Structure formats: C-alpha cells, structure tokens
Amino acid sequence: MSVQIFILSKLMKENTYPYKLKKQLSEPIPLDQLGGLTESKLYYHFDSLAKKGLIETVEIIKEENRPDKQVFSITAKGREELPKLIYSLFKNADDIKGMTVGLVNLKYVERDEVVNILKNRLEKVKGHWDEIKGIEEQLQVSKENEWFVDFMSSYISSLNESSIHWLEKLINTIKRDEN
Q: What's the domain of life for this entry (predicted)?
C-alpha cells in the first residue's frame, strides 16, 4: 500500500513513468535499496494501479534502441482514492515507521481525521498495555524463570512506553502544524 500511495502522490504533482521514479528514489540516497523497492515491484504497482483505474497511460515515449516508456497520469478516481489509502495506512500500520509515506503526504488528507485515527490507536495501545500489566501481576513465576520474566517485562514495558510517547508526540505535532 505504501508504494501505491507513493506513486499516486508523485502523480498528483506531475505525470511520470516507473523508471524515472526509481531513479529519483535512488539519488542521492538509495532509498529504493533501503526500502527493498526493485524496479519489477515498482512496475507491478504501476500495473496494479492502472488495472484499478487509479492511473492511466497518457503518452508512450519511443526511443531508438530503448524500450518504450509509458508515461502515467493520475485519474479522477485515483485522486479520490489517495486520501482513503492514506487513512487506511494510518489505521493499519504496525508502527510509526510504517506510516512514513502517509506522514509525508498529509497535504492530501484532513489532519483532524488523521489525529482521530492516531488517538484511537493510542487508546488501543494504552488499553492493551493495561491488560498486559494486569496479566503480569497475576503471574506466578518460579525462581529459575524470574530472570526471563523480568527481562521480557522490561523489554515489553520499554516498547509500549516508547510507542505511547511517539504516538502522543506525533499527534501533538500534527495538531500544532495544522495552523
């Protein structure tokens, strides 16, 4: 989903073709390699978006001794779907890192809606954390497993506190930057 949001957001600015996007992603920092985005994956996502009617071919560039380049444009349906995809990304991402493409494309969505999605997510994380703490208090641990339970408890506590901290910070940042 992130790759498709990326493609649609690029097409909101200008018509382009897959190889050009791949090249832009690799310079000056090889973001394509860091994200594991191969050329074939990029072409697959362009094809998938075209089949859904979210993008369309607007030009074919022919060059001697080179493969034809299909230049794509976003359709009206694609413009309508982009915000929905971004909202879905915020709802379903495993963590903030998974929201990156949505965060850099906030201009295509209602910030209040994103804040509401993130607040709901925050409440779920806090509720889940309360459940875990409740279970932890009921555990009866043998002496030989105390080290393991202490270690895992500290590890999970640290992860949850970090998630809560960064979600709260993200919510506040989005709210502050909407003015």
A: Bacteria
Query: How many domains does the chain divide into?
Result: 2
User: Does any domain span residue 105?
Assistant: no
- Looking at the fold, whether 120 and 86 belong to one and the same domain comes out as no
Residue 29 belongs to a domain: yes
163 CB-near residues (< 8 Å, 6+ apart): 95, 125
Structure tokens, 115: 């804040």
Residue ranges making up the domain that contains 41: 2-91
* Greatest Cα-to-Cα distance within the chain, rounded to the nearest angstrom: 75
Structure tokens at 56: 């369309």
List pLDDT tens digits, range 16-63: 988 888 877 766 555 555 566 777 888 899 999 999 999 999 999 888
Cis-peptide into 18, omega within 30 deg: no
Please, what sign has the CA dihedral across residues 39, 45, 9, 163?
negative
Q: What average pLDDT score do residues 137-154 get? A: 84
Task: Find residue 55's DSSP bridge partners.
Answer: 74
Same domain, 31 and 87: yes
Neighbours of 149 (CB within 10 A): 13
CA distance 63 to 142: 73
Cα–Cα separations (whole angstroms), residue 40 to 18, 96, 100, 158: 9, 27, 22, 38
- 125, 160 in Cβ contact below 8 A? yes
